[in-house]
Amino acid sequence: MTSRQPVDRPIELPSIAFLGAGSMARAILAGLLQPHVTVAGGIRTTNRSAARAAEFDAEPRVTAYATEADAAANRRAVAGAKLVVVAVKPAMVPDLLDEIADALEPGSVVVSVAAGVTVATFEAHLPSHVSVVRTMPNTPAVVGRAVTGVSAGTRSSGADLALVVSLFETVGEVLVVPESQLDALSTISGSGPAYVFLLIEELTKSAIAKGFTREEAAVMVQGTFRGASELLAASGDDPAELRRRVTSPKGTTERAIAVLQEADLSALFDRATDAALARARELAAGA
To answer: Where NADPH is bound, by residue (predicted)?
Structure first.
């Protein structure tokens, strides 16, 4: 496994097409539109709605097509594109790949952000002169803080992989892993924001139960999570060490931590992530 940190150095990318312009595609697009990123040949996007396509009218770097207005929009978008990001719903992927297969440029790289759809599925629907890289970004991409897992396909070169890594470095950190680990990664970083939001939700309820207003509880809880995360990132220390520094012997925090540890959080997180992994495998099998 290799990892790359987010960068603000100049990034140069070739022409890119996004098929599907949902929240994840738009988050990646926002990364590409940062001042330090150059996309030679421009960015094209497709979605169903002409109204959604019109949202890009004021952005000269993006050409947006709507399939409801142009049945050939997807094929038009991928023509000449070096990177083709497939960001439609997983169930739509096979038909979309069949639609664009003979319009893809030789040597282009098709990038999947479709959860549960394997490299083998992509490669089965695409010509041999096209490579595939499967990815798993998470929702903090919207604020440039994603953790994205990236896995090479059987036909992708080192240069293809590096290109996709650069693409996702525009929205956060990147981990390069074998595809066999990508579903497991999704149970940690992919689902992880939901786990954090659940903890924030529950601690907020506890604060309200102790007499604080919802607004006061939000300041305390959200500020504490944000501050703790930034302290962890800035210090470079192990989280266990930072926890020990907050936990004075025989103090209040020590008593609270003891209650949490009695709940066997380690086993609980193992069971939760195992359940997510089992469901990821069901989805991959079409269940």
So the answer is: 74
